[in-house]
Amino acid sequence: MSRKAGFTKVLAILGAALVWLVLLSPLFFWLAFTIRSGRFDLAHLDYLMPAELFLVALAGAGLLSWAALRARRRVKWILSALVIAVLALVGMQGLAVVTGLAHGETQPGGWEWGLVVGALVIYILALAGLGTGGIVLLGELSKKAGA
Asked: Is 0.70 topped by the overall pTM?
């Protein structure tokens, strides 16, 4: 394996790890709470955490994008998922402000809440697509290095 290929693989590993860390951290903390408290309570699952950790996901996406561009593989997949994630997050925040949910003028629930949560779901799915793209890229880089 050349030094360039090795560095590209490290970029892909770190990028995918950061993206999946953002996605899996709410589950990890919820599971730790569940084990520690001995009770199953979904109210302690912080579904907003992936949005709160956006900068970590952005760092991972940057590393994945760099790796994809260096390898000339899965560039469209990774960049498309990144753009969708950013647009969904910005849209979610904009919708929360416009509908009054961000200021507390509107109570959670109803169609306003549905729009904001829908944008959050799109954001999380885009991150999952980004992380999956990173795993696929890593598999291709490993296969290429082994050949």
From this structure: yes
